[in-house]
Amino acid sequence: MNLHHVTGTTDGLVAPVLVTAFDGWIDAAGAASSVAEHLAGDATTLATFEPDLLYDYRSRRPVLDVVDGELRHLMWPELAMRRLRVDGRDVLLLHGPEPDFRWRELGGDVQRLALEAGVVQWVTLGAIPAATPHTRPTPVFATASREGLLKPGIQKGPEGLLRVPAACISVIEMSAVEGGIPAVGFYAQVPPYVGGPYAPATIALLEAVGDHLDIAMPLGALPEEASTQRAGLDAAVSAQDETRAMVEQLESQQPGTDDSIPSGDELASEIERYLRGQEGPGSSR
Question: How far apart are the first and last CA of the chain?
């Protein structure tokens, strides 16, 4: 049984790349899903996926509008594949809340859609909490399904074993690779004390994808948002001794560049602290 409904056409697509970002696990500060939302404004829908089969509505409830005491409108979780052009390149965008059910079946479904559309490369986007301060450029580490996919100078990381709870997006990527589609992933590292959206990480992911694909990604108002958030974080840190000490400690551990890749053990430790809710004031998810 197909989990999707085709609503558009792939006619005219030339060597499209498929960019995937899910709202949920492995999306600290919503940085990856913000990339998808940022790009989706000019996109047209190719396919939608059946929410009743994919989501637990008790954990991700639909949003209800009640107007003047009348139940007016329900907004259900939506997972969709869309098409757009960015700087002359055909891009497919798979985005929505992380599904709760039928991950392996969904992986097969998406694989078939991607192959039928002629996808030549898969790009996964994510963001994780990491021991990095907001006063430094947002680090991004990359993954690749085989050697040679990443440009020279882009470090494939993290080093060593990183064993963490799996994300649905990773299951689907692995299905795409099994279908013969080469895949890369870019993961922004978000300061552990950041709460809410974090535009610097969104910008870092957009720039990483743009550099990888040799296209100019539109940033829109994101630089202004990043500047405003930086000012707010600076003020909050200066007013809290504990957080200021944390930032100073993180700065002292940085080598002064944004290209260092933490080890698997280091990232696993930060993710475990994140899961336990011990990452400091606020949440980075």
Answer: 33
